[in-house]
Amino acid sequence: MRLLFVCPSLGYGGAETQLIALAKGLGARGHEVVIYSMSGQSERPHQLEEHGVKVIHDEKRSRLDFSLIGRMRAFVSAWQPEVVHGFLFDGNLYARLAAVANGGAVCLSAERSSDYSLRRAQTIGHHLTKHITRAVVANSYAGAEFARRLFAFPPERVHVVWNGIDLCAVRQRASLATGLRASLGMDHGDKLLCFVGSIKPEKDYVLALKIVRELLLIEAGKWHCLFIGAGYAKSMPYTVQEFDQSQAYAAVVEGLFSDLPSLARVHRFGAVDNVIELMAQSDVLLSTSIREGFPNVVLEAMASGLPVVSTEYSDIRRILPLPWQVVAERNVASLVSALERASGAEAKAVKLAQEVWVDQHASIEQAVLSLEAVYRACLLEAGK
């Protein structure tokens, strides 16, 4: 099959990470794969080119860039992909507008989250183009239900393909990771909490920092806390509402960071590409998301041998194997108790249960085969 993916950029977000993994996996199965990125900036082109996946770097210069649409449609008309698959809202919208240049192409949209609201302009664009979409691929059951409502599709037109990771590669990287705890000045017996996420409201840094404050005040054990992630990166040369909102939220978060006790035990690494190595040397991962699709970082933590404690969102109860790992109420004391439990006497049992779960459900090979089956079913339904 000739497969064209359309996405806003190839940064370090979860959707972009999963797209790269899927593209490599599909390419390895003999499909011709092209990713059309609407940002000229990309931190990771080498991860694709060495696997035979072609990347087109274009530049989106306005919210509705007609010149970009023209170039994209010209490419679709010339290359004649069988499937055009969008990722994230702009990727979905532009994939639909490009797919009409090849009447034989099947157009799919992706749903990577749930329970969010579209801006007025997004709502108009979605309703004017959603009929071009033959099917939606969601990475969670919560996202699939949301997509059914958003598109007014019957269940058979919305498919769930959970995220997958390269389990062997993650475990190899984790096994070789050393030196972090000494570099942070940790003593024997100290515990290290890890939090990974961009600084944005959906990740709820405010709740995470309240939890960290309580951990730092515990006298019976000495906690260190590691934060990995940065604020919203503005990559488009036009006004982006999300950027302004993220700046205001980041200011609140910075104030909370500066007010923490024992700041010498709070470590911030920003956006880095060795997240797996850092997690593998920690004692527990905390996830405080309010809404999200399928969290790659949780899968990577589980495969790295790192116990996870999470608030409740999306499919997280289907993912974490022990019920108490998911705390239903967004309560600081309850989450602190679960963190101490996961990093203490029950850590070994948690690691084993997580290892079994990821082996059964979370390989990138499984995700690639499931997505390939969706493409074949859509093409068959379209008479291709």
From TrEMBL:
Organism: Roseateles albus
Glycosyltransferase subfamily 4-like N-terminal domain span: 12-167
Xref: Gene3D superfamilies: Glycogen Phosphorylase B (3.40.50.2000)
Signal sequence range: none
Official protein name in the record: Glycosyltransferase
SUPFAM superfamilies in the record: UDP-Glycosyltransferase/glycogen phosphorylase (SSF53756)
Pfam families, per the entry: Glyco_transf_4, Glycos_transf_1
Annotated PANTHER family: GLYCOSYLTRANSFERASE
Domain Glycosyl transferase family residue range list: 181-320
